[in-house]
Amino acid sequence: MSFAFIVFFENTPGIDLTVDAGELAFVRDLIRATPGLTSGLIYTPEVAEDLFNHDGTSPPFGLQLHFSDLPTLEAAVGPKGHLQPLMGLLKSLHGAKVTQQVMLVRPFPVDDPVVKTAEGGLPCSYVVHYPGPAADLNLWLSHYIAGHPPVMRKFPGIRSIEILSRVDWCGGLEGVERVAHIQRNRILFDSAAALQAALQSPVRHEMRADFHTFPAFEGGNFHYPMATETVLPSA
């Protein structure tokens, strides 16, 4: 079992922000030194065309930080937690809308999980947000978890599938809005080109057909290709 602390920075109307490379280096160091961290993902924007969804430019920055248990995560984001300096490191993203959430990570099998990214490149995640609410959350989650990952598994070149479910949690980064999305997904590919090939494949039509069977929910869904850098804790 794994829990994820998720932070996303989104551009607001009239603003097109890019994270500064020097600030990003400081963020990597902060993440690596986080007590109890098992792994961290750093998201930066990528481009891949979907047959059906056109949700605009991907967010300029995001984090997904994994912990093996909830109390350890809550300590890292508590009032005196190790991750509290994060916002102060990202001055280049001032003016962005920032949200945070803690979620349970549910991994699902794929046929070939070995990432084969070209030297100097980064794999690409397709990150999907479902803000909700759902008319019946139990029905929504049960239906989605049982039916959608097996279709995702058919995507050519897919390396990882995660469904993230909301949990109640304590703490959080000071001054950052807490959200309670009913669900997020992440599927991983070797590159943005590999993701686009999957999103243009016949499997995408199967995904769309399955989408039309979902139980009632509001809030829409948002799909973003994100270059994905993995950061491991310091020894």
How are the elements arranged and paired?
Blueprint: E1 2-10, H1 21-32, E2 37-45, E3 61-67, H2 70-77, H3 86-89, E4 97-108, E5 124-130, H4 137-152, E6 160-166, E7 177-178, E8 183-189, H5 192-199, H6 202-211, E9 222-231
Parallel strand pairs: 4-7
Antiparallel strand pairs: 1-3, 1-4, 2-3, 2-9, 4-6, 5-8, 5-9, 6-8
Helix pairs in contact: 4-6
Shape by Cα distribution: globular
Beta-strand portion reads: 25-35%
Weakly predicted, low-confidence segments: none
Order of helical and strand elements? EHEEHHEEHEEEHHE
Instruction: Give me the CATH fold name.
Output: Alpha-Beta Plaits
Total strand count, please?
9
Overall number of domains: 1
> By helix and strand content, what is the structural category?
alpha+beta
Number of helices: 6
Largest sheet: 8 strands, antiparallel, barrel
Helix content: 10-25%
Mean pLDDT: 97
The rounded Rg comes to 17 Å
Task: Tell me the name of the CATH class.
Answer: Alpha Beta
Q: Give the termini distance in whole angstroms.
A: 22 Å
Reported CATH architecture: 2-Layer Sandwich
- Strand neighbour order, sheet with most strands: 1-3-2-9-5-8-6-4
